[in-house]
Here is the input.
Amino acid sequence: MSAGGGPLRLGSRAPEAKAICVFVHGRGQTPEDMQSHVLARLSAPSVAFVLPRAPTGAWWEARAVDPLTPVARAQLSSALDHLAAAVAAARGELPGLPLLLAGFSQGACLAIEYLCAGLPPPEALAAFTGCRVGVPSDARVEAVPAGVPVYLSGADADPWIPVSAFAEAVGTLGRRGASLRADLFPGRPHEVSDPEIAMLGGMLADLGAGRGPRMEAAR
Here is the structure.
């Protein structure tokens, strides 16, 4: 386990690890928050977890649904570089293992942007309460690799990710050919719920068993 200014590493190590999960925290959160609120509720004994840490406690300053200003674009680019380095380091430490990229809230938005940016793709993506960053009129890359399994969740009255932004992300990912499951939960607070935890566990179990995520967990 490591903390301080770097990523938090949890779970299995070689040779026991069968899959990797890079999990990205939200605005004003820490990797340790994700450990206690999400990963502690998960049974994944053969997974190596890497939780990147935003240098300033947030990956960028604006809301995800605000138009992309030059400052926001620069901050998002820096965050994508940070995440790409974390993914590359995880793959380097455990070569050959399937990798699931996941995140919550602002971390989910960053994970979606990673997938859209044409960076080396994960084997699967789980974005809990996320959307695209920016607005439809912004020039945004949509280089989603066809066929990548994606789970996207949201809530019908979330204070940070409105349904319209959730729906736009669903449309983008579906249009670009992702193998997509999207769940919108009525009345769910801004948190990762038990059905979402079950989905994450199932996706990791499938990857660890050498198969693509079936995303069959009950809603």
